[in-house]
Amino acid sequence: QERSALLRKWYDLMMQHKDDLARIITAESGKPLKEAQGEVLYSAQFLEWFSEEARRIYGDIISTASREKRALVLKQPVGVAAVITPWNFPSAMITRKVGAALAAGCTVVVKPAEDTPFSALALAELANQAGIPPGAYNVVPCSRRRAQEVGEALCTDPLVSKISFTGSTATGKALLHHAANSVKRVSMELGGLAPFIVFDSANVDQAVAGAMASKFRNSGQTCVCSNRFLVQSGIHDAFVSKLAEAMRASLRVGNGFEEGTTQGPLINEKAVEKVETHVSDALAKGATLVTGGKRHQLGNNFFEPTLLSNVTRDMLCAREETFGPLAPVIKFHTEEEALAIANAADVGLAGYFYSQDPAQIWRVAERLEVGMVGVNEGLLSAVECPFGGVKQSGLGREGSKYGIDEYLEVKYVCLGGL
């Protein structure tokens, strides 16, 4: 009850300071202010959700075959949790983990991304104001040069019982390696290569709207952004034409603080170079540039929202996560072909598809090898729903009623001599 009340107070303080928190996100990441405001609300909701879940950590009484014994199951906090978070959602990725950890009774050490430490420190200030005890929520910012060293220290320290990480698959594998020696509890939300499939039966206008929402949020820099657009041959040309029209009409690149900006800068120069590499590779291998294709005239880290057609599976943009405003379209002919392309990746975080055929909806939703499926929907994240992937996209789930289990140990107690 005490933990519940403190988390709720932290939530209330976030809501009181939501505008300041949003401005911090935009200032340090470039995210358009409207999106930053949305992230703060989403972020605060995790504290509200887990403030309620804190009072619902139930055990069990198990019937036994012996009259002299009783069997109990208790749930207890795992201990100190080390939380390593990314820059693309510098507030929400913290509260989704920390809310669950504190609700379970764990203390936490947060290492925020090197590019976005201020959101974590702002949350720490509000946690302090909420009365969360000193030492329960700790923030360890570090430079890019020290990031690997700090991450390794957290994963190998014997006082840390749990590691929760959101970031790239490559970094996740390194952290798993470090955590293995002490067999720590680990949850990972890693990279994705989300397919976005549009079948001939789809409502094309609905699919275009979903593509816009899924692809271009945070300038294409989210783990669940659509990375590969698979469009069936019967509606391929109409979809490409309408998507290009929607991109030209509604996407505005600019300073995240300026009214009307929908696409801010990418996080750094390296991110821009990756988008450029994917575009040039695709064009060299025969893709068609429909719109965009180069750095924006604003310069620095800004890139034009880009649409490519005639993309093939051997191109980098079809095999690697771009993490930028690039939409590559691959034409397919049959449902089996689409599933084969979608499931060929060694990662599986999110997947999307559009269809009006009920039988097809069941078949494809079950056969897509991902942890989360959006059916006729381009935005699927919600605090009450489990977030996580399969294959090399991670371990465990965050958010929802399942998220708190990642921070709890199950203890069996056998009472004898009764």
UniProtKB/TrEMBL annotation:
Where, subcellularly, is it found? Mitochondrion
The top EC class, named as a word, is oxidoreductase
Q: What is the lineage of its organism?
A: Eukaryota, Metazoa, Chordata, Craniata, Vertebrata
**What residues does the Aldehyde dehydrogenase domain cover?**
1-413
**Would you kindly state one Gene Ontology biological process term found in this protein's UniProt entry?**
gamma-aminobutyric acid catabolic process
Top-rank taxon of the source lineage equals Eukaryota
Q: Which residues form the active site?
A: E189
Chief location bin: mitochondrion
Q: What is the organism of origin for this protein? A: Myotis lucifugus
The cellular component terms of Gene Ontology attached to this UniProt record, alphabetical and capped at eight, are: mitochondrion
Give the UniProt family note. Belongs to the aldehyde dehydrogenase family.
Q: Which UniProt keywords apply?
A: Disulfide bond, Mitochondrion, NAD, Oxidoreductase, Phosphoprotein, Transit peptide
Q: What is this protein called?
A: Succinate-semialdehyde dehydrogenase
Please list the GO terms describing molecular function.
identical protein binding; succinate-semialdehyde dehydrogenase (NAD+) activity
Q: What does this protein do?
A: Catalyzes one step in the degradation of the inhibitory neurotransmitter gamma-aminobutyric acid (GABA).
Q: What metabolic or biological pathway is this protein involved in?
A: Amino-acid degradation; 4-aminobutanoate degradation
* Reaction(s) catalysed (UniProt annotation): succinate semialdehyde + NAD(+) + H2O = succinate + NADH + 2 H(+)
